[in-house]
Amino acid sequence: MTTHQAWLDDVRPNPYADQLAIGFRRLRFVRTLEQEYRRYMLEDSFDLRRLTLCAGMLVWLAFAVLDFFLVPASTERWWMFAIRIGVLALLLACGLLLLIRRHIHLLVPLSVTCILAPGLGAAAVVAVAHTVDPSYPYEGLLLICMVAYFLAGLRLTEALASSVVVLIGYVAFELLAGLVLPRLINNVLFLLFGNLMGLVGCYLLEYKSREHFLVVRLMRILADHDALTGLHNRRSFDRQLERLWRQAQRESLPLALLLCDIDHFKAYNDHYGHQAGDAVLRRAGAVVADAARRPLDMAVRLGGEEFAVLLYDISQPQALQRAEELRAALEALKLRHERSDTAEMVTLSIGVASVQPADGGEFAQLYAHADRALYEAKAFGRNQVVA
Ligand SMILES: Nc1nc2c(ncn2[C@@H]2O[C@H](COP(=O)(O)OP(=O)(O)OP(=O)(O)O)[C@@H](O)[C@H]2O)c(=O)[nH]1
Predict the structure, then answer these.
(1) C-beta 240 within 6 A of ligand 1
(2) Would the pLDDT of 247 be above 60?
(3) What are 199-237's pLDDT values in tens digits?
(4) Does the annotation mark 305 as catalytic?
(5) Domains in the chain and their CATH numbers?
(6) Contact (CB, 8 A) for 118 and 55
(7) Which pTM does this prediction carry?
(8) ipTM of this predicted structure
(9) Selected catalytic residue, list 76, 139, 305, 325
(10) Transmembrane region positions (predicted)?
(11) Which of 226, 229, 263, 265 has the most ligand 1 atoms within 8 A of CB, as the residue to mutate?
Protein backbone atom coordinates (compact mmCIF):
# COMPACT_ATOMS: atom_id res chain seq x y z
CA MET A 1 0.00 0.00 0.00
CA THR A 2 2.96 2.31 0.65
CA THR A 3 4.50 4.31 -2.19
CA HIS A 4 7.78 5.16 -0.48
CA GLN A 5 9.69 1.94 -1.21
CA ALA A 6 11.98 3.54 -3.80
CA TRP A 7 13.64 6.06 -1.48
CA LEU A 8 13.17 4.26 1.84
CA ASP A 9 16.19 2.03 1.24
CA ASP A 10 18.39 5.14 1.02
CA VAL A 11 17.52 6.23 4.54
CA ARG A 12 17.59 2.84 6.27
CA PRO A 13 18.37 1.70 8.90
CA ASN A 14 15.94 3.98 10.67
CA PRO A 15 13.03 2.74 12.83
CA TYR A 16 10.41 4.83 11.00
CA ALA A 17 11.73 3.97 7.53
CA ASP A 18 12.00 0.30 8.52
CA GLN A 19 8.38 0.25 9.67
CA LEU A 20 7.23 2.00 6.48
CA ALA A 21 9.15 -0.57 4.45
CA ILE A 22 7.77 -3.65 6.23
CA GLY A 23 4.25 -2.15 6.31
CA PHE A 24 1.53 -2.19 8.97
CA ARG A 25 -1.57 -3.61 7.33
CA ARG A 26 -2.70 -5.07 10.65
CA LEU A 27 -2.52 -1.56 12.12
CA ARG A 28 0.33 -2.46 14.43
CA PHE A 29 3.94 -1.28 14.63
CA VAL A 30 6.89 -2.93 16.33
CA ARG A 31 6.59 -2.61 20.12
CA THR A 32 8.55 0.60 20.84
CA LEU A 33 7.03 2.45 17.88
CA GLU A 34 3.56 1.23 18.81
CA GLN A 35 3.97 2.71 22.30
CA GLU A 36 5.23 5.97 20.81
CA TYR A 37 2.30 6.10 18.38
CA ARG A 38 -0.25 5.50 21.14
CA ARG A 39 1.27 8.25 23.29
CA TYR A 40 1.17 10.59 20.29
CA MET A 41 -2.47 9.66 19.58
CA LEU A 42 -3.51 10.37 23.16
CA GLU A 43 -2.02 13.86 22.95
CA ASP A 44 -3.19 14.49 19.40
CA SER A 45 -6.81 13.42 19.90
CA PHE A 46 -7.31 15.03 23.29
CA ASP A 47 -9.15 18.15 22.04
CA LEU A 48 -11.23 16.11 19.59
CA ARG A 49 -12.40 13.85 22.41
CA ARG A 50 -13.36 16.79 24.63
CA LEU A 51 -15.25 18.47 21.78
CA THR A 52 -17.06 15.25 20.84
CA LEU A 53 -18.11 14.67 24.44
CA CYS A 54 -19.54 18.20 24.79
CA ALA A 55 -21.41 17.93 21.47
CA GLY A 56 -22.54 14.40 22.36
CA MET A 57 -24.06 15.52 25.66
CA LEU A 58 -26.04 18.28 23.91
CA VAL A 59 -27.35 15.85 21.28
CA TRP A 60 -28.24 13.32 24.00
CA LEU A 61 -30.17 16.04 25.85
CA ALA A 62 -31.98 17.02 22.64
CA PHE A 63 -33.09 13.41 22.11
CA ALA A 64 -34.33 13.27 25.73
CA VAL A 65 -36.56 16.28 25.03
CA LEU A 66 -37.69 14.76 21.70
CA ASP A 67 -38.88 11.63 23.53
CA PHE A 68 -41.64 13.72 25.13
CA PHE A 69 -43.06 14.44 21.66
CA LEU A 70 -42.46 10.97 20.18
CA VAL A 71 -43.73 8.76 23.01
CA PRO A 72 -47.18 9.14 24.59
CA ALA A 73 -47.31 9.83 28.34
CA SER A 74 -46.76 6.51 30.12
CA THR A 75 -44.62 4.75 32.72
CA GLU A 76 -42.34 3.68 29.85
CA ARG A 77 -41.68 7.29 28.93
CA TRP A 78 -40.50 8.00 32.48
CA TRP A 79 -38.28 4.93 32.38
CA MET A 80 -36.73 6.24 29.15
CA PHE A 81 -36.24 9.63 30.77
CA ALA A 82 -34.62 8.06 33.84
CA ILE A 83 -32.17 6.10 31.63
CA ARG A 84 -31.30 9.26 29.67
CA ILE A 85 -30.63 11.21 32.88
CA GLY A 86 -28.49 8.37 34.27
CA VAL A 87 -26.37 8.29 31.11
CA LEU A 88 -26.07 12.08 31.12
CA ALA A 89 -24.81 12.00 34.72
CA LEU A 90 -22.18 9.41 33.72
CA LEU A 91 -21.13 11.48 30.70
CA LEU A 92 -20.84 14.55 32.91
CA ALA A 93 -18.60 12.67 35.34
CA CYS A 94 -16.39 11.45 32.47
CA GLY A 95 -16.39 14.99 31.04
CA LEU A 96 -15.12 16.43 34.31
CA LEU A 97 -12.26 13.92 34.34
CA LEU A 98 -11.54 14.54 30.65
CA LEU A 99 -11.46 18.30 31.09
CA ILE A 100 -8.59 17.91 33.53
CA ARG A 101 -5.59 17.18 31.36
CA ARG A 102 -3.62 15.27 33.96
CA HIS A 103 -6.06 12.37 33.56
CA ILE A 104 -4.64 11.69 30.10
CA HIS A 105 -3.71 8.12 31.13
CA LEU A 106 -7.44 7.49 31.66
CA LEU A 107 -8.30 8.81 28.21
CA VAL A 108 -8.94 5.46 26.51
CA PRO A 109 -11.10 3.90 29.30
CA LEU A 110 -12.99 7.18 29.67
CA SER A 111 -13.60 7.43 25.92
CA VAL A 112 -14.80 3.82 25.75
CA THR A 113 -17.13 4.52 28.71
CA CYS A 114 -18.45 7.59 26.86
CA ILE A 115 -19.38 5.31 23.93
CA LEU A 116 -20.71 2.38 25.94
CA ALA A 117 -22.88 4.45 28.31
CA PRO A 118 -24.94 6.24 25.63
CA GLY A 119 -24.74 3.17 23.36
CA LEU A 120 -26.20 0.75 25.88
CA GLY A 121 -28.42 3.53 27.28
CA ALA A 122 -29.85 4.23 23.82
CA ALA A 123 -30.31 0.49 23.23
CA ALA A 124 -32.33 0.26 26.47
CA VAL A 125 -34.33 3.41 25.65
CA VAL A 126 -35.20 2.07 22.17
CA ALA A 127 -36.21 -1.31 23.58
CA VAL A 128 -38.45 0.31 26.23
CA ALA A 129 -39.96 2.62 23.58
CA HIS A 130 -40.67 -0.32 21.27
CA THR A 131 -42.95 -1.85 23.94
CA VAL A 132 -45.34 1.09 23.37
CA ASP A 133 -44.45 2.10 19.79
CA PRO A 134 -42.57 -0.38 17.50
CA SER A 135 -41.88 2.42 15.00
CA TYR A 136 -39.77 4.40 17.52
CA PRO A 137 -36.48 5.26 15.68
CA TYR A 138 -33.54 3.02 16.55
CA GLU A 139 -31.11 4.48 13.95
CA GLY A 140 -29.56 6.76 16.56
CA LEU A 141 -27.58 3.70 17.69
CA LEU A 142 -25.67 3.87 14.42
CA LEU A 143 -24.77 7.49 15.14
CA ILE A 144 -23.15 6.38 18.40
CA CYS A 145 -21.16 3.68 16.56
CA MET A 146 -20.03 6.30 14.01
CA VAL A 147 -18.82 8.51 16.85
CA ALA A 148 -16.80 5.51 18.09
CA TYR A 149 -15.24 4.96 14.64
CA PHE A 150 -14.52 8.57 13.70
CA LEU A 151 -14.89 11.13 16.48
CA ALA A 152 -13.81 9.59 19.77
CA GLY A 153 -10.08 9.31 18.98
CA LEU A 154 -10.26 5.52 19.38
CA ARG A 155 -8.17 2.99 17.49
CA LEU A 156 -10.01 0.57 15.22
CA THR A 157 -9.94 -2.31 17.72
CA GLU A 158 -11.29 -0.12 20.54
CA ALA A 159 -14.02 1.38 18.33
CA LEU A 160 -15.00 -2.03 16.99
CA ALA A 161 -15.15 -3.64 20.45
CA SER A 162 -17.32 -0.77 21.76
CA SER A 163 -19.70 -1.00 18.78
CA VAL A 164 -20.02 -4.78 19.09
CA VAL A 165 -20.93 -4.45 22.79
CA VAL A 166 -23.56 -1.81 21.90
CA LEU A 167 -25.04 -4.09 19.19
CA ILE A 168 -25.13 -7.12 21.48
CA GLY A 169 -26.74 -4.96 24.19
CA TYR A 170 -29.34 -3.78 21.70
CA VAL A 171 -30.28 -7.31 20.66
CA ALA A 172 -30.47 -8.43 24.31
CA PHE A 173 -32.69 -5.49 25.34
CA GLU A 174 -35.01 -5.93 22.35
CA LEU A 175 -35.38 -9.66 23.05
CA LEU A 176 -36.22 -8.88 26.68
CA ALA A 177 -38.71 -6.23 25.56
CA GLY A 178 -40.27 -8.71 23.12
CA LEU A 179 -39.80 -6.98 19.76
CA VAL A 180 -41.10 -9.17 16.93
CA LEU A 181 -38.30 -11.14 15.26
CA PRO A 182 -38.64 -9.90 11.63
CA ARG A 183 -38.43 -6.28 12.81
CA LEU A 184 -35.48 -7.08 15.07
CA ILE A 185 -33.65 -8.83 12.18
CA ASN A 186 -34.32 -5.84 9.91
CA ASN A 187 -32.97 -3.41 12.52
CA VAL A 188 -29.88 -5.51 13.28
CA LEU A 189 -29.04 -5.92 9.58
CA PHE A 190 -29.26 -2.15 9.08
CA LEU A 191 -26.99 -1.57 12.08
CA LEU A 192 -24.54 -4.27 10.91
CA PHE A 193 -24.18 -2.79 7.41
CA GLY A 194 -23.78 0.69 8.88
CA ASN A 195 -21.05 -0.67 11.16
CA LEU A 196 -19.34 -2.35 8.24
CA MET A 197 -19.01 1.00 6.50
CA GLY A 198 -17.75 2.59 9.70
CA LEU A 199 -15.22 -0.22 10.06
CA VAL A 200 -13.78 0.27 6.57
CA GLY A 201 -13.63 4.05 7.00
CA CYS A 202 -11.99 3.71 10.42
CA TYR A 203 -9.40 1.26 9.04
CA LEU A 204 -8.42 3.65 6.24
CA LEU A 205 -8.32 6.58 8.63
CA GLU A 206 -6.10 4.79 11.14
CA TYR A 207 -3.86 3.50 8.35
CA LYS A 208 -3.36 7.05 7.08
CA SER A 209 -2.87 8.37 10.61
CA ARG A 210 -0.13 5.77 11.22
CA GLU A 211 1.51 6.50 7.88
CA HIS A 212 1.45 10.23 8.63
CA PHE A 213 3.00 9.57 12.07
CA LEU A 214 5.89 7.59 10.53
CA VAL A 215 6.51 9.96 7.61
CA VAL A 216 6.48 13.11 9.76
CA ARG A 217 8.94 11.61 12.24
CA LEU A 218 11.16 10.32 9.47
CA MET A 219 11.13 13.74 7.79
CA ARG A 220 12.07 15.38 11.06
CA ILE A 221 15.06 13.08 11.45
CA LEU A 222 16.15 13.63 7.84
CA ALA A 223 15.77 17.40 8.20
CA ASP A 224 17.92 17.44 11.35
CA HIS A 225 20.69 15.02 10.36
CA ASP A 226 23.56 14.99 7.93
CA ALA A 227 23.14 12.30 5.28
CA LEU A 228 26.82 11.36 5.03
CA THR A 229 27.76 10.96 8.70
CA GLY A 230 24.36 10.61 10.40
CA LEU A 231 25.35 13.38 12.86
CA HIS A 232 23.09 16.34 13.63
CA ASN A 233 23.28 19.11 11.04
CA ARG A 234 23.70 22.85 11.47
CA ARG A 235 19.95 23.56 11.69
CA SER A 236 19.55 21.07 14.52
CA PHE A 237 22.71 22.43 16.19
CA ASP A 238 21.47 26.05 16.11
CA ARG A 239 18.21 25.01 17.74
CA GLN A 240 19.89 22.88 20.40
CA LEU A 241 22.50 25.53 21.18
CA GLU A 242 19.79 28.12 21.84
CA ARG A 243 17.80 25.64 23.95
CA LEU A 244 20.80 24.48 25.99
CA TRP A 245 21.96 28.05 26.48
CA ARG A 246 18.66 28.94 28.14
CA GLN A 247 18.68 25.73 30.20
CA ALA A 248 22.25 26.39 31.35
CA GLN A 249 21.22 29.95 32.32
CA ARG A 250 18.32 28.62 34.39
CA GLU A 251 20.36 25.91 36.07
CA SER A 252 23.59 27.96 36.37
CA LEU A 253 25.63 25.26 34.67
CA PRO A 254 28.55 25.64 32.24
CA LEU A 255 28.39 24.89 28.53
CA ALA A 256 31.31 23.99 26.22
CA LEU A 257 31.68 23.97 22.46
CA LEU A 258 34.39 22.06 20.57
CA LEU A 259 34.82 23.25 16.96
CA CYS A 260 36.75 20.64 14.96
CA ASP A 261 38.22 20.89 11.46
CA ILE A 262 40.07 18.16 9.54
CA ASP A 263 43.52 19.38 8.49
CA HIS A 264 44.45 19.69 4.82
CA PHE A 265 41.28 18.02 3.69
CA LYS A 266 41.31 19.69 0.29
CA ALA A 267 44.71 18.12 -0.35
CA TYR A 268 43.29 14.75 0.78
CA ASN A 269 40.38 15.05 -1.64
CA ASP A 270 42.63 16.14 -4.46
CA HIS A 271 45.02 13.26 -3.92
CA TYR A 272 42.73 10.35 -2.96
CA GLY A 273 39.51 11.43 -4.65
CA HIS A 274 36.13 12.60 -3.40
CA GLN A 275 34.87 9.11 -2.51
CA ALA A 276 37.85 8.43 -0.28
CA GLY A 277 37.27 11.90 1.21
CA ASP A 278 33.68 10.89 2.02
CA ALA A 279 34.92 7.73 3.74
CA VAL A 280 37.25 9.82 5.93
CA LEU A 281 34.38 12.16 6.80
CA ARG A 282 32.32 9.13 7.88
CA ARG A 283 35.14 7.76 10.06
CA ALA A 284 35.78 11.20 11.56
CA GLY A 285 32.02 11.59 12.15
CA ALA A 286 31.96 8.35 14.16
CA VAL A 287 34.88 9.57 16.31
CA VAL A 288 33.13 12.92 16.88
CA ALA A 289 29.89 11.11 17.81
CA ASP A 290 31.80 9.18 20.51
CA ALA A 291 32.73 12.47 22.17
CA ALA A 292 29.07 13.36 22.80
CA ARG A 293 28.18 10.65 25.28
CA ARG A 294 25.52 12.10 27.59
CA PRO A 295 21.87 12.73 26.63
CA LEU A 296 22.18 16.53 26.33
CA ASP A 297 25.54 16.46 24.49
CA MET A 298 25.41 16.81 20.74
CA ALA A 299 27.74 15.85 17.87
CA VAL A 300 27.29 17.87 14.69
CA ARG A 301 28.61 18.08 11.16
CA LEU A 302 28.51 21.79 10.51
CA GLY A 303 29.38 21.35 6.83
CA GLY A 304 32.32 20.23 4.68
CA GLU A 305 35.08 18.93 6.96
CA GLU A 306 33.89 20.96 9.99
CA PHE A 307 32.39 19.27 13.05
CA ALA A 308 31.22 20.48 16.46
CA VAL A 309 30.58 18.90 19.84
CA LEU A 310 28.28 20.70 22.24
CA LEU A 311 28.78 19.63 25.86
CA TYR A 312 26.41 20.42 28.72
CA ASP A 313 27.45 20.88 32.35
CA ILE A 314 31.17 20.40 31.85
CA SER A 315 34.10 22.38 33.31
CA GLN A 316 36.75 23.90 31.06
CA PRO A 317 39.49 21.39 32.07
CA GLN A 318 37.10 18.51 31.36
CA ALA A 319 36.13 20.04 27.99
CA LEU A 320 39.81 20.40 27.09
CA GLN A 321 40.45 16.80 28.07
CA ARG A 322 37.47 15.63 25.95
CA ALA A 323 38.83 17.63 22.99
CA GLU A 324 42.30 16.14 23.41
CA GLU A 325 40.83 12.61 23.56
CA LEU A 326 38.89 13.34 20.39
CA ARG A 327 41.96 14.67 18.56
CA ALA A 328 44.00 11.65 19.68
CA ALA A 329 41.21 9.21 18.70
CA LEU A 330 41.22 10.41 15.07
CA GLU A 331 45.03 10.34 14.98
CA ALA A 332 44.93 6.78 16.35
CA LEU A 333 42.89 5.66 13.33
CA LYS A 334 46.05 6.30 11.28
CA LEU A 335 44.16 7.22 8.11
CA ARG A 336 47.04 7.73 5.70
CA HIS A 337 47.38 11.31 4.33
CA GLU A 338 50.49 11.65 2.13
CA ARG A 339 49.74 15.26 1.19
CA SER A 340 49.44 16.63 4.71
CA ASP A 341 52.09 19.11 5.86
CA THR A 342 51.21 18.27 9.46
CA ALA A 343 51.45 14.50 9.84
CA GLU A 344 51.40 11.25 7.85
CA MET A 345 47.79 10.63 8.80
CA VAL A 346 44.50 12.54 8.86
CA THR A 347 44.46 14.93 11.83
CA LEU A 348 42.08 17.29 13.53
CA SER A 349 42.40 20.85 14.85
CA ILE A 350 40.04 21.77 17.68
CA GLY A 351 39.02 25.12 19.17
CA VAL A 352 37.41 24.95 22.61
CA ALA A 353 35.14 27.52 24.27
CA SER A 354 33.63 27.12 27.71
CA VAL A 355 31.22 29.58 29.32
CA GLN A 356 28.79 30.01 32.18
CA PRO A 357 25.64 31.33 30.45
CA ALA A 358 24.27 32.53 33.82
CA ASP A 359 26.99 35.22 33.81
CA GLY A 360 25.24 36.89 30.85
CA GLY A 361 26.21 37.28 27.22
CA GLU A 362 24.81 35.75 24.05
CA PHE A 363 25.09 32.19 22.82
CA ALA A 364 26.65 33.53 19.60
CA GLN A 365 29.65 34.49 21.71
CA LEU A 366 30.28 30.83 22.55
CA TYR A 367 30.54 30.04 18.85
CA ALA A 368 32.72 33.10 18.12
CA HIS A 369 35.07 32.15 20.98
CA ALA A 370 35.45 28.54 19.76
CA ASP A 371 35.95 29.75 16.18
CA ARG A 372 38.79 32.05 17.28
CA ALA A 373 40.41 29.18 19.19
CA LEU A 374 40.12 26.93 16.11
CA TYR A 375 41.73 29.62 13.96
CA GLU A 376 44.65 29.72 16.41
CA ALA A 377 44.92 25.91 16.43
CA LYS A 378 45.27 26.04 12.63
CA ALA A 379 47.71 28.97 12.77
CA PHE A 380 49.90 27.30 15.47
CA GLY A 381 50.49 24.26 13.21
CA ARG A 382 47.24 22.17 13.24
CA ASN A 383 46.63 18.76 14.89
CA GLN A 384 46.15 20.41 18.28
CA VAL A 385 43.61 21.71 20.77
CA VAL A 386 43.44 25.40 21.68
CA ALA A 387 41.11 27.01 24.22
N1 LIG B 1 34.79 14.32 -0.02
C2 LIG B 1 34.15 15.39 0.40
N3 LIG B 1 34.78 16.58 0.42
C4 LIG B 1 34.13 17.67 0.86
C5 LIG B 1 32.80 17.60 1.30
N6 LIG B 1 32.42 18.84 1.70
C7 LIG B 1 33.47 19.65 1.50
N8 LIG B 1 34.52 18.97 1.03
C9 LIG B 1 35.86 19.43 0.65
O10 LIG B 1 36.56 19.81 1.82
C11 LIG B 1 37.61 20.68 1.40
C12 LIG B 1 37.80 21.76 2.43
O13 LIG B 1 38.93 22.47 2.09
P14 LIG B 1 39.47 23.73 2.88
O15 LIG B 1 38.29 24.50 3.43
O16 LIG B 1 40.40 24.48 1.99
O17 LIG B 1 40.20 23.18 4.14
P18 LIG B 1 41.52 22.28 4.27
O19 LIG B 1 42.05 21.86 2.96
O20 LIG B 1 41.17 21.17 5.22
O21 LIG B 1 42.52 23.27 4.93
P22 LIG B 1 42.72 23.54 6.47
O23 LIG B 1 41.35 23.45 7.08
O24 LIG B 1 43.26 24.93 6.53
O25 LIG B 1 43.65 22.54 7.00
C26 LIG B 1 37.22 21.21 0.01
O27 LIG B 1 38.07 20.64 -0.94
C28 LIG B 1 35.80 20.68 -0.19
O29 LIG B 1 35.55 20.33 -1.56
C30 LIG B 1 32.14 16.33 1.26
O31 LIG B 1 30.98 16.16 1.63
N32 LIG B 1 32.86 15.28 0.81
Answers:
(1) no
(2) yes
(3) 999 999 999 999 999 999 999 999 999 999 999 999 999
(4) yes
(5) 5-222 (no CATH), 234-386 (3.30.70.270)
(6) no
(7) 0.82
(8) 0.97
(9) 305
(10) 51-72, 78-99, 106-129, 159-181, 187-205
(11) 265
